[in-house]
Every structure is written in C-alpha cells, then in structure tokens.
C-alpha cells in the first residue's frame, strides 16, 4: 500500500504545530492548521504569532489555511497532532489534550488516512490509547482502514539555530509503508535528514529520554553547585576549568522549567511504575531540580538588607514569551513566604497570561523602578544582559544585593556598596 499526502491537517498551532504547518505549506502541500482556540486562530489570521516563532511576513505569505472548525479538516490524507502533554498536580501524565485531539481527528478520518502524533508521550500511548479512540470515533479499523505514525517534536522555542528545517526528524510508522511515506514527507522539510525508528514505541521512548537525560545532567550540576556554595567556591569558575577537558558535558546550574525537561521525566517514571519498575535516578533528578527555586530564594533571603525585591524574568528561558511551567514562580513564591515584597518584570512575557497562570501582575517597564533591596536576575533575556553599573545604581538601594541566577552579570562591575551573589 502506498500513501500520497495531498492534503494535510496539523492539529494544535502552538510552538510545535505552527512552525511545522508553515514548513509543510512552504513545500507546496495543501495544509490546514487547526486550533480549537478561536482567538489563537484569529490572531494568526491577522499575522500575529504571540509565541514569536513565526514573523508577520511569513504568516502573510504562507498558503496555510487556518481554521477553528474541525469539520474543515475532513478529507485530509494525513493528520499530525501537536498538542501539549502536561502533568497534573500529582506529577502524573495528563493525556487530556491528546485524547481530545484523537476524538476530534477520529470524526474526520476516512479509509486510507494516516494519523501521526508528535506530542511527547510515554511508550505505548500512540497505539494503546490513541488508536482505540480513533477507532471508536471513526468506526474504522486501525491498521486496516487507517494507520498510525509517530514523529517526536524537537522544537526548541526561540532557537533559530535548531529550527525545524535544521534538525534530524525521527519517524516511525505502523507499517513499513507508512514509515517510508513519513520519511519522504519530513525529509522534504528538513535538510538535516530523517531517521526511521524501528517502531512507534521506540520513537516514543527516544523522545522521552532526550529530555530526561538533560534533566538528570542539570540535576547533577545543581547538586554540586549547592555543595560548592557550602565550600565557598563559584560553580561557574569550576565549570570553566572543567570544560577544558574534551569530553566534559558543559551543563549549567539553574531553574528547570518549560514544557519538556521539567515534565517528560515524569511520563517515563510513571510508565516504569506501571510495568513494575521503581525508577530512582529519574525521580532523584526531578527532586533536585524542583528544589532549586527554594534553594535560590533561601540564599537570597538570608543576604537581603530590607524586603523590597525586584525579580527580572518570569518566562522559563531567555528571549521567549513562554511561561509554561516556569521555575521562576517557585523563587517568587518562596521569597514572598519569607516576607519579601516582590515586584516582577519581564519584557517578553504577556501580562494577562502571567496573571492568569500565576496571579502575578508584571510591571510594564523599569523606567520608574527605584530603591530595591534586592535585584534578582532569573532569566538571561538580552534586555537584561545589557545592564551596566548605572542600571543597578538606578534600580537598587545603596547596599542592594544583586543576585545573578544566570551568571549574566559576572563581569559587570557593581556600584560601590552593592553586593553580589550568583548561583
């Protein structure tokens, strides 16, 4: 059986789905971009992408059809699902978005259709959970009337060096014919090539360990950083020295957040418990990284002379507006529990989204900000990297503490009387 993808629907137009849909449309495919959020679809039709991944000119010139009515996807040959996979309050997988997307797609598919999932999941979700949902919603038989595929997303928000056109794409199919068709399709949008995984479970597992591995490596550096603080040693000085060895893995300490690294290990750990294995290293890494917000806040609080604190940065990483699962929230909350009066600023974050997610009202600009007892740099936005001694003199009190969580001000001299702390 051969497959020709003349009409493609991408479900979910966030950081992953939108760049993918644009890239496919650029290759002259007929592409429909669907999102259940009508406001999101409207803003994209107005050539405005709040994620900052796609510029207005590219949106305007794209042949991508944007819809919020799922019925308009009917008749597509290929459906690609790129919806979020968060965890719940107990850090267990929340497959609500994936299940909902499968229901939606199931009502649109026909015989011969291929459904690909890009969302990060634990091994088995595509075939054991999504397949039956698609069957139930469509009345068709999985593996006979329609077919499954998996191609894990590797989008790194704000990273132009590793955009979708420049990364190796892993693909897997329910049959070898599906895998070949997907390899041909994705091979047309990336210059880095395609890797065909042995099967769908293998591709799912490959994705989930990519971020679990990073989480564990960062946890190690975070742990030794806490040790070095007790020894009065700078972890950054240590890392600069250690990085001169050819095979040293140069991870940096910090607050782990976002939609992948702080979440994916819980998917793998949960699946491990399901099959009777109690994970140790994976969850140990999570515990260490989850505690870093409390650690940072405690170190800052004990050094403050006063209670007015300015936190600079709320997004989960530099130069992006993405607020999902931000580790900065833990620092802010912990400082407030310790009695600090915290003001938060972030030039990249959407103020209404910050208020909705975390209840924080961000100040709009730093023009009138004055006299803070603590200035805490939590996200290395370019806006903050350009600070000079005069900036700190304006923002801080005479004996203010400058807490540099991201080591972005290491080589900037501070005004006389101000004190420095770095993670």
Would you write up a description of this structure?
With 423 residues, the chain is α/β, with parallel strands linked by helices. Helices cover 38% and strands 15% of the residues. It contains 14 helices and 13 strands. The strands form 2 sheets. The protein has an 8-stranded mixed β-sheet with strand order 3-2-1-4-5-6-7-8, with helices on both faces. The protein has a 5-stranded parallel β-sheet with strand order 10-9-11-12-13, with helices on both faces. Helix 7 packs parallel to helix 10 and helix 10 packs across helix 11. The longest helix has 31 residues. The model has no long low-confidence stretch (mean pLDDT 94).
Which bin fits the share of residues in helices?
25-40%
Number of helices: 14
Biggest sheet strand line-up: 3-2-1-4-5-6-7-8
Mean pLDDT: 94
Described by the principal axes of the CA atoms, the overall outline is: globular
Given the helix and strand composition, which structural class is it?
alpha/beta
For the termini, the CA-CA separation is 57 Å
The total strand number stands at 13
How large a portion of the residues is in β-strands, by DSSP E?
Answer: 5-15%
